[in-house]
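This part of the workshop introduces the protein records we will be handling. As an example, a complete record with its sequence and its structure tokens follows.
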Amino acid sequence: MASPKNKVSKMRKRQRVAQLEKAIVAEVQPCPECGAMKQPHRACTKCGMYKGRKVLAV
């Protein structure tokens, strides 16, 4: 297994993590049922619908 050659600084580590979080937060779209903003390919947290059927008890 590969091991790190040098220490990764706090700043470099935090910059890498920030890029991952940015991509997740930016992708939102309105729910076709209730109009609330939700992430794509996820059940709506407001109405519990996914692909036209109820999957969560809200």
Notes: Residues 29-58 form one domain. The first strand starts at residue 29 and ends at 30. Residues 10-26 form the longest helix (17 residues). The mean pLDDT is 89.
